């Protein structure tokens, strides 16, 4: 599998710009997610190691959709055909899923394309700007600021990258960064 290069370390400790810190830490977690996934062979990317039953590939697809829901559909109010496309249907509606027949590379490519789009959306926008209405947020009263959305994405990544770290360790890989 081909993983595009992303920042390896945290943003510089001298960085004081809040926008730069938020984007820098998002890229740090994005890169950590991909590096952790690269430690796993194909069969482990598609295997569930935890009782909750998700696979690392499903987690990557989930984070692609999380970014899409919060930034494309949410912040920009863009039309998104299937904002919850990372979830199954019917009895599996509460479970993450990867479409039948999707290759690992296709999932990684879709994820990295979304990360690129997310960077385009957030670049140069003020943190106090409220999300547009008409997409995920029907009214201005419900529309969070970009700062809130980016902090939300960070906590989502921190939790899920930690979970992936456990899965990699269970599969015989390393721990930590």
Task: Note the topology.
Layout: H1 18-38, H2 42-45, H3 56-75, H4 104-122, H5 146-170
Helix pairs in contact: 1-5, 3-4, 3-5
Provide keyphrases for this structure.
50% helix, 5 helices, 177 residues, mainly alpha, Four Helix Bundle (Hemerythrin (Met), subunit A)
Identify the overall geometry.
Answer: globular
Alpha-carbon distance between the two ends: 20 Å
Q: How many distinct beta strands? A: 0
Largest pleated sheet: none
Identify the CATH class: Mainly Alpha
CATH fold category name: Four Helix Bundle (Hemerythrin (Met), subunit A)
Overall residue-averaged pLDDT value: 92
Measured by DSSP, the beta-strand proportion falls in under 5%
Runs with pLDDT <50, length 5+?
A: none
Quickly count the helices: 5
As for the number of domains, it is: 1
Summarize the structure in words.
With 177 residues, the chain is mostly helical. It is 50% helix and 0% strand. The chain has helices at 18-38, 42-45, 56-75, 104-122, 146-170. Helix 1 (18-38) packs parallel to helix 5, helix 3 (56-75) packs parallel to helix 4 and helix 3 runs antiparallel to helix 5. The mean pLDDT is 92. It holds the Pfam family MST. InterPro entries: DinB/YfiT-like, MST-like.
